[in-house]
Every structure is written in C-alpha cells, then in structure tokens.
Design a protein that fits this description.
The structure holds two protein chains of two kinds. By secondary structure, chain A is mainly alpha-helical. Chain A contains four helices and two strands; from the N terminus they run ββαααα. Chain B is mainly alpha-helical. Classes of the chains: A mainly alpha, B mainly alpha.
Chain lengths: ~160, ~270
C-alpha cells in the first residue's frame, strides 16, 4: 500500500542535464539534483563556495549577472538593475540550500518568473550557438555566488566581504 | 505601370489628401509620444538623446533621409528610371505608406515590409539589382520614405489574409527563447520603465525605424533590432527579412497602433 503523499517529505530528483541539442553530445550532462522542500541541500561542487570570488562574479558585467536586474550592496558599481528585488539582507532571509534552488532554477518555484535559471540545460528554446550546452553559471560560480549572498545579512555593512 | 504601382497609388493618393498634418520636424510636445497609454521609446530616452531627435539639424538619421532623397531621384544607370519617374514627389506619393507597413501581398503570398517592397520595385519594375538588407542604400531609402509619414498614426491591417501572420508574430512575441529564457513580452510588456543596469527598458514600440542608434553609431532597421534583442537573450536570431521577423514586425507594428511615426528616431 502506497504511503500517503502527505506523510512523505517533499523529495524529488530532477534530471536537469538532458541537453536536447545535437552537437552537445560531448557535453557531460548535468547531474540530477535532489530538491527537498524548495531547496537543494547538497552543494554542486566539492570545493566550498568562495564569497570573494562570488562577489566578483555578481559584478562581472560581461556575464548575465545579478547586478543587471538586482540592486546589491556594491557601492563601487553604478547603475544597479531594478527588475528583481534588492538583495541586501538576502543572506538573512534564505539558507544556502534555498538560495541554491533559486539560482539553479527559480522557475521550479515560480514558473512565470523573469529570472533565468543559472544552472539548467533542458527545456530551453533556440539557444544561440556560443551558449549551446552551457549553463549561465558554472557549478562553482553558483556555489561562489551563494557563499557571497550568505554574507549579505541584515546587519552586514555595505562592502562585505 | 505595374500591378504594384496601381495597387499602391490610390491608397497613397487618399492618404495624401487625408493626411493634413504638416511634416513636423521632431520637437513635438512630449505628450504627442503617448497615445492610449502607449509610450514611444522617445519617452524612455534621456534628455540628451531626445534633443538629438528634436532637431533635424542634429539628428544623425537625417543624413540617411537626405541620402534616401538623392537615391529616390537617381535614375537607374541601365533602365534610366528612378523611383521619382513613376512616384513623383515622395512627400505626396509616399505619405502614409510606412505607417501601414508591413502589408500582406497576394503576389508573394506573405508579408512585405518597406525594405522588401523597395527591392521588389527595383527588381520587378526597374530591372535593377536588389539592395542588401541593412545596406546604407536600403536604410537611406526606408528612412526617406518612412520620414514622409512622420506624425501619422501607425495603422496596420491584421485581418483577412494577414491574420495568420499576425498570430505567428504574436506567438513569437510571447515565446521564451535563448539561454536567458526570456520572451519579448517579459521585458517590454511587464518591465517597461525598469532599469536593466544603466539602461531603461522601453515598451518596444516600433515608431521610429530605421533609427539612428547610439550603441550602433549608425542606422538600423526593425529587423536588426529584433536580431539585437534575440542575441541579447542569447537566442539564435533569424535572418533579416525572414518570414519570422516579418510576422513579428506586423505584430509589433500593431502594438504601436495610433502612435505617430517618428522616422528617423534617435535612440540610445
């Protein structure tokens, strides 16, 4: 007899790694990620996230990066975006696991969100040639950015870390 | 006289009679750029970019208009025929044309925009070579012809045989695409006025093409803008003049219905 769904923890494994494009055959598919209660508890890499590297990633204007849409406590960069909510204090609002799902694929929380999925290959349409088979951030960049965002607590200064 | 000429002529004549507003240099009151809650990209530009458009002597797009006027009057070296040989004074014959393009063309069985119509005329009527899409010459001619509709409300036909193309363009507009997985609508419907870093997202109204864009430092067509947007969301662009972009052009022109033609607009 099947267990009642209500008694089961919300556990789902999502295979995010099925690159649909031909030519991406040499690309390692992304590993399946275990999602628990709208969060991804397990880090994507063995190397712990580096908040200093993460801060450089979020302000790198050559990447499709947080600063384009979000205001961040990075005073030396002008012109922060206003599309998404400001991220000051985000480290007090979410855990690492919750931030990880929001970076990996925020559409699993809100299918209509404008925010891109930073670590997803499947389900995309007409990806331009230079980006086929590539995630927006690498797994390590995701971990670094999480480590940086966790420093943005409510009592953090404006120039952390 | 060709079939095309006959089909265009009566409409152009009607438009010339009805279009009583004088040709306005840009420098309109800002209220003219907002119609029925729709705002031209002009209203999303900063003051200095607006000033570029406000004064015909400053607007770099006017160089293209002037070049287009010269091409309009220049006889083809082989046939000896110019646009003006048949169409005469463009201020009369071309008034209102750009405001209603793209149109369904039964001969083609699909949509034709201003660029493709000019090339159709060159090849079929003047026995001349077509101009490359996005070439200086084609941009100049479209800027010149487009400027003849300045101040006139955009009004395209989306019914009858144009309907399926309109639906295709609408589907394109709402489809998420590219590595960033964004549709046109998510930015231009949902986030107009918000800042994307230093840039302000406009409503994507297509009132001023071809435009002089500061980022490009040159003129660009509607289809070049579509390509630029697609590439920006890391999506594979379609070809200039492709059926996909012609349908999107019809849909976006319909979105801009009622807004006045600003060709040649200056944009960031």
């Amino acid at each position: 007899m099947a267990r009642s769904p209500a008694l089961r923890p919300a556990v789902a494994a999502l295979a995010l790694g099925l690159a649909a494009t031909a030519g991406a055959a040499a690309q390692d598919p992304l590993p399946p990620l275990e999602i628990v209660d709208l969060a991804i508890p397990k880090p994507l890499t063995q190397t712990p996230g580096d908040p200093v590297a993460g801060r450089l990633t979020v302000r790198n204007t050559r990447m499709a990066t947080c600063l384009i849409c979000h205001d961040l406590p990075i005073p030396e960069e002008p012109d922060h975006g206003t599309i998404g909510p400001p991220l000051a204090g985000v480290g007090s609002r979410y855990s690492a696991a919750e931030l990880r799902l929001r970076l990996v694929n925020p559409k699993l929380i809100n299918p209509d969100t404008i925010m891109p999925a930073y670590y997803r290959l499947a389900g995309l349409y007409r990806v331009d040639l230079p980006y086929q088979g590539k995630t927006i951030y690498t797994a390590q960049e995701v971990e670094d950015v999480i480590a940086y965002l966790l420093t943005l607590t409510d009592d953090a200064g404006t120039d952390a870390p | 006289m060709t079939e095309q000429w006959r089909s265009i002529m009566p409409l152009a004549a009607i438009v010339a009679v009805l279009g009583t507003a004088p040709l306005l240099g840009q420098g309109w009151d800002a209220s003219r750029y907002e119609v029925d809650g729709k705002k031209s990209g002009y209203l999303y530009m900063d003051e200095t970019t607006r000033l570029l458009q406000d004064d015909d002597f400053l607007n770099p797009g006017m160089f293209a208009v002037d070049a287009g006027r010269a091409l309009w009057e220049r006889p083809d070296p082989v046939s000896g025929v110019s646009c003006a040989s048949c169409h005469g004074d463009a201020e009369t014959s071309m008034r209102g044309v750009a405001a209603r393009y793209p149109v369904y063309d039964p001969k083609v069985g699909g949509l034709v925009n201003l660029e493709l119509r000019i090339n159709q005329m060159l090849v079929d009527t003047m026995d001349a070579a077509p101009l490359a899409y996005e070439s200086d010459e084609l941009l100049a001619l479209t800027a010149f012809i487009g400027s003849q509709s300045r101040g006139m409300p955009i009004e395209v036909a989306i019914d009858g045989p144009a309907a399926p193309f309109f639906e295709a363009g609408k589907a394109f507009y709402f489809a998420r695409r590219g590595q960033l997985d964004l549709s046109c609508a998510q930015c231009h419907d949902d986030h107009a006025g918000d800042r994307l870093r230093g840039d302000v997202i406009s409503e994507g109204q297509v009132t001023g093409f071809p435009i002089f864009r500061l980022l490009w430092d040159e003129m660009g067509s509607r289809h070049r803008m579509f390509q630029w947007c697609n590439v920006s969301v890391r999506a594979e662009p379609y070809a200039l003049g492709s059926p996909e972009y012609l349908s999107l052009e019809l849909y976006t022109a319909w979105r801009s219905s009622g807004l006045p033609v600003e060709t040649p607009a200056a944009r960031r």
